[in-house]
Design brief:
Elements: H1 10-15, E1 23-26, E2 30-34, E3 44-48, H2 60-81, E4 85-89, E5 104-110, H3 127-140
Antiparallel strand pairs: 1-2, 2-3, 3-5, 4-5
The structure holds guanosine-5'-monophosphate and zinc ion.
Zinc ion binds next to helix 1.
């Protein structure tokens, strides 16, 4: 199977076997390996083999393949590590915290009080503002 690649991309190098990784699994469209800067033990990445930077660029069927791989890894984490929770996190763009512009889903085992800063405090929004943005989004679907 051929995939788009970027010679300067660290995940493309891992996919091509030019950089080492602790690989968990691999299929036709995806690979999963351990994150080298784990927020918690078991932090892994489900990665498209092809180089698409973000969720708006990747074909829907490949995104579905990456989601399936993330679920397999999350289920293995639940079984093997018995975390109290698991986050699946997927960042798009530097402002959203993306540091590697090659689509991937983080699988993050979580424990209460682990101080991983993903959680926020819900504050009720203004219904008119929410509706106005919903209208913009619906027009773009
Ligand atoms: P992002 O910030 O784009 O959501 O996530 C990128 C992740 O890739 C980071 O958590 C970072 O630790 C991880 N990462 C960066 N370079 C490498 C590498 O060479 N090997 C592995 N296994 N993970 C990497
Ligand atoms: Zn890449």
């Amino acid at each position: 199977m051929t995939h788009p690649t970027d010679a300067d991309c660290v995940f493309c190098k891992i996919v091509a076997g030019k950089l080492p990784c602790f690989k968990l699994l691999e299929d036709g469209a995806t690979i999963a390996f351990m994150d080298i800067n784990p927020v918690n033990p078991g932090h892994a990445l489900a990665v498209a083999k092809g180089h698409w930077p973000t969720v708006d660029a990747i074909p829907a069927d490949v995104l579905a393949d990456v989601a399936r791989t993330a679920q397999r890894v999350a289920k293995a984490a639940v079984k093997a590590l018995a975390p109290e929770g698991v986050n699946l996190v997927q960042a798009n763009g530097a402002a959203a915290g993306q540091s590697v512009p090659h689509l991937h889903i983080h699988v993050m085992p979580r424990r209460r009080g682990d101080n991983v800063s993903l959680n926020w405090t819900p504050v009720p929004g203004d219904m008119k503002d929410i509706e106005a943005v919903a209208d913009k989004l619906k027009a773009a679907l």
